[in-house]
Amino acid sequence: MTEGKGRAALEKEPAAGAPSERASRRGWYSVIVLAFVVMLAHIDRGVIALFVEPMKRDLSLSDTEVSLLLGFAFTFPYVVVGLPMSRVVDRGVRKRLIAFSLSIWSVATALCGLAQNFWALFFGRAVIGASESVNTPATISIIADAVPRDRLPRAYAIYHAGFTGGAAMALFIGGVLIGLLAAVEPIPVPFVGVIRNWQLVFMIVGIPGLLVAALVMATVPEPPRRGATKPGGYPLREVVGSLKSQRALHLRLLPGMVLLSVMTQALVAWQPAFYERTYGWGPETAGPLLGMVALGSSVIGLIAGARLCEYLGKRTEDANLRVLFLAQFLSLPVMALGPLMPNPWLALACGALGSVFGVMGGPAFVSALQIATPNEMRGQVNVLYATLVNIIGGSVGPTLTGILTDLVAPSEADLRYVLVAIKVVVAPLALFLIWKAMAPYGHIHRQKIEEEGQA
User: Fold this and answer.
1) For residue 233, is it within any domain?
2) How far apart are CA 89 and CA 136, in angstroms?
3) Contact 50, 170 (CB under 8 A)
């Protein structure tokens, strides 16, 4: 390709090494299957949020202990395992890693149903977190190589449909199951203890993952690493050097995403408890409704976000982060008002509208990170982001909410005000950081286009 072809030609033509149409069809199949894997991951990690009140009652837990199960128990092992395994992702067979990690967290989810105390449940959550840490970078890396670059927002919209769909289905399926099992009496099990109906839900949702793991191994192709220059992967020293060279981007984008995660994880973890404490909706009522609302709003938001990325991508180099900023700017005020609504239906409406806006930015963010990162560094850079977003957002958000509810709020019913306060304090800084990251990202993207034009 000559220099004279310019930007328009580059957008119409696949980059060197892009898959053929036939290979691209196989790539889209991989995207769909891997989105289903991500959905299972978020069902298995998220269904516990429905059982805050039953866990407190049956295992004699405080809000602070519950917050540790919702956050730290999952996120700390995610970091400990995820960072070293990212090197394996950058040089190994990624689909094998995905299938293996899926099998492990599925079994661990089912074993959570046998837990009889805080520490047993903590251990089960830790295994889930550790194994899921391998899936995220491997899946994102495969998708980046499976479809053309100009279709990455669409591919990551499908990926995020699994992400948000899993969070929604955790509420929907968990709520339906706990309703169906409502009449089941506690079951004494020799050498284990008493198994209650909410524990049976963990066992049921863990089983399908083993079947999907076999499907991944049998049918998902391992795509060649597009633009690969170092088959053995880059050592950590060179990854750090690359991040330093792009520090104008990462020193803004990374903390911005962490702050967004603090707000999001606080709401996700405590949302069912909020509806029960504020409006009297138990998990059998709140779960299916929240799940249906989240699923519908996510589909709308992801389609709109992907289309907007592709539209703006033809006009400006910073399109992906521009969409991310716009999505969060529109979402945060609505989501902050939701917990203050006088009835649950208005709260649901605010949540639905806020979710439509919020999820629009998901494909944009992931696409931007892949475009800015060299191929054999993607596993490590994705894990860095996922690790900090999960360990800080996933731990601080739920735990801070529990601590503030225990120690500052006058009563458990004031959980709604805690959720609002966290958003009001954190949201402006998150938006500012993402806005400041737009210019350096646009510069990096422009350089990539120029390098391809000279190739």
Assistant:
1) no
2) 10
3) yes
How many whole angstroms separate alpha carbon 272 and alpha carbon 172?
Answer: 11
Domains identified in the chain, total number: 1
pLDDT for position 16? 40
Q: With bands split at pLDDT 50, 70 and 90, how would you rate the model's confidence at 32?
A: very high
d(CA 44, CA 167): 9
- DSSP code of 390? I
With respect to residue 102, please indicate whether it lies within any of the assigned structural domains.
yes
Least confident range from 326-335, 393-402, 427-436: namely 393-402
Q: Which domain holds residue 145?
A: 18-220+242-454
- pTM: predicted TM-score of the whole model, two decimal places: 0.69
Chain position carrying tokens 């070293």: 84
Give yes or no for a contact between 57 and 182, defined as CB atoms under 8 angstroms apart. no
Report yes or no on 230 lying in a domain: no
For residues 379 and 142, give the distance between their C-alpha atoms in angstroms, rounded to a whole number.
10
11 membership: H or E segment, kind and range: helix 6-12
Angle, helices 415-454/247-279, rounded to nearest 10 degrees:
150
CB atoms within 10 A of CB 100: 16
More confident residue, 212 or 89: 212
The per-residue pLDDT for range 197-253, each reduced to its tens digit, is 999 999 999 999 999 999 999 999 988 877 656 666 677 788 888 888 999 999 999
What pLDDT shows up at residue 445?
Answer: 84
Please report, for the domain that includes residue 409, its CATH number. 1.20.1250.20
Quick one: pLDDT at residue 159? Answer: 87
Give CA–CA dist 182/79, Å, rounded: 36
- Domain assignment of residue 228, yes or no: no
H helices of 360-414, where?
361-372, 378-388, 394-407
150-206 confidence digits (pLDDT tens): 788 888 888 878 877 887 788 888 888 988 998 889 999 998 889 999 999 999 999
Q: How far apart are the first and last CA of the chain?
A: 6
Q: C-alpha distances in angstroms, 282 versus 164, 175, 178, 271, 279?
A: 22, 9, 10, 11, 9
* Cα→Cα distances 209→11, 44, 106, 206, 416, Å: 38, 9, 5, 6, 35
